[in-house]
Amino acid sequence: MPISDLVSDRVRGLGSGVFARNDQRKQLYRAGCFSAGLPPLLDLSLGSTDLQPPEVALEAIRAQLGLPESAAYCLHGATLPFREAVAAWAQRRFGVAVDPEREVLLLVGSQEGTAHLPMAVLNPGDQALLLDPYYPSHLGGLLLASAQPRFLRLDPAAEFSPDFDQLSTSEWDALKLMVLGFPHNPTATTGQQAWVDAAAERAVRHGLVLAHDNPYVDLALEGEAPALLRSPLWRQCGIEFFSFSKGWCLGGYRLAFAIGAEPLITALRQLKAVVDFNQSTALQAGAIAALEQAADWPERIKPIYRDRRDRMAAVLQAAGWPVRIPSMALYLWLELPEQGRAAGLDSEQFCARLLEATGVCLTPGHGFGAGGEGFARLALVHPIEQLEAGAQRMATWLATL
User: Fold this and answer.
1) CB-based burial, 295-328: b 16+ in 10 Å, e otherwise
2) Is the pLDDT of residue 16 over 80?
3) Which of 48, 52, 49 is nearest to 19 (CA)?
4) 329 φ, ψ to 5°?
5) CB-based burial of residue 125 (10 Å sphere; 0-12 exposed, 13-18 middle, 19+ buried)?
6) 130 φ, ψ (degrees, to nearest 5)
7) Whole-prediction pTM value?
8) Does residue 180 contact residue 214 with C-beta atoms inside 8 Å?
9) 359: alpha, beta or left, given left = phi > 0 and alpha = psi -120 to 50?
10) Which among 5, 161, 171, 334 is least buried, having the fewest CB atoms inside 10 angstroms?
């Protein structure tokens, strides 16, 4: 038997993933663009910001790096100062008293937490509900847990609001997990607290776990972002994931945390203990400094994203590309322009040809599920001058289709 046949079915089921496919296309473009006289790559496919973290966080990391314990394995007990800082933040941010010992868990990024949670709470064959479009790790976690995904389609005509009545009572009763996330990636919809409250009520009524992925909670450009912690039912059904990657620009440091009902935190902690240890205490020191000394950092960067959003939208709209103005920072969720649809291109083909012709890389909407087909995600992660120049390159190419 060839060794390639020994790969598990669950890994085969994951496929290559949209980010991996995009990465291959970007490498090919980089390899040939200079010899072909093409412009350099402008990568707008990942929510990896060019904005820098607060200096107090970096200073705290530097100060800890020289200490011996920073190079040691970090078990759960050593994360208590971090968990206490998170509990204090939750009290300030949401007015919720959280037990740092039993209701808080350090994560290596919220993506890691959402991908591991299904293995902690589901058995093979259990059904779980995802929004469609969804973030890829949400589906990936279900597939790794050998669970059966169901999808709740978000309708653009309804401003991507979840219609929980799409499922019958018996279909709700068959579910064991629901994964939500507002503000929503990829549609850049902030959402409403009523949506999350309704999801929590359904979870309690039908006896399922509600996981709310909330790394953009501090990046709502209009209104206040919803949070599961604001629902009085969160301890009865839920777990919420937060991240330092977006609001504090610490994506590469892989720092995040979960707050949730004690049984869910305990289950996820048990699973994580088998998979890995925790982040270095030096990185935790930076996260603590961010929460305690730079709590206003997300508010300070939001005007930058608002300016980028508005100016990019203006250039694209002038080129005949309709833009739905998002209420959340970091992304534009773009319907494919008429020129692309008339050429018969799906989202993956459109983004591949756009990259090949202009050097601008977007993420195909189909990579976020069937509900993402006909869209592309653009990340506002470069200075405005580069973004506007990229938009002009896209506009010029659209005129040739």
Assistant:
1) bebbeebbebbeebbebbbebbeebebebbebbb
2) no
3) 48
4) -70, 165
5) exposed
6) -120, 150
7) 0.94
8) no
9) left
10) 5
**Dihedral (CA of 31, 340, 157, 315) sign:** positive
Domains of the chain: 3-52+297-398 (3.90.1150.10), 55-293 (3.40.640.10)
Q: State how far the Cα of 224 lies from the Cα of 210, in Å rounded to an integer.
A: 21
pLDDT at position 116, please?
95
Report yes or no: 179 and 264 within 8 Å, Cβ to Cβ. no
Q: State the Cα–Cα distance between residues 367 and 45, nearest whole angstrom.
A: 11
pLDDT band at 399 (very low <50, low <70, confident <90, very high): confident
Q: Looking at residue 35, what is its pLDDT?
A: 65
pLDDT over 80 at 112, yes or no: yes
CB 191 within 8 A of CB 142: no
In contact, 360 and 393? CB cutoff 8 Å: yes
15 touches 369 (CB < 8 A): no
Interatomic CA distance for residues 361 and 48, integer angstroms: 13
- Decide if pLDDT at 33 tops 80: no
Show Cβ contacts of residue 398 under 8 Å, excluding neighbours closer than 6 positions. Answer: 319, 320, 321, 337, 339, 340
Task: Kindly tell me if the per-residue pLDDT of 123 is higher than 70.
Answer: yes
- Residue with the two structure tokens 């699973």: 271
The sign of the dihedral angle between the CA atoms of 44, 324, 298, 254 is: negative
* Spatial distance between the Cα atoms of 183 and 220, rounded to a whole number of angstroms: 7
Residue position matching structure tokens 């930076």: 286
Q: Give the Cα separation of 379 and 337 in Å (integer).
A: 17
Range 224-243 burial, b when 16+ CB lie within 10 A, else e: ebbbbbbbebbbebbbbbbb
Contact call for residues 373 and 347 (beta carbons, < 8 A): yes
Contact 379, 185 (CB under 8 A): no
Task: Tell me: pLDDT of 11 over 90.
Answer: no
Residue 116: Cβ within 10 Å count: 24
- Res. 34: pLDDT tops 80: no
Long-range contacts of 94-99 (CB under 8 A, 24+ apart): 94/227, 94/229, 94/230, 96/229, 96/230, 98/229, 98/259, 99/262
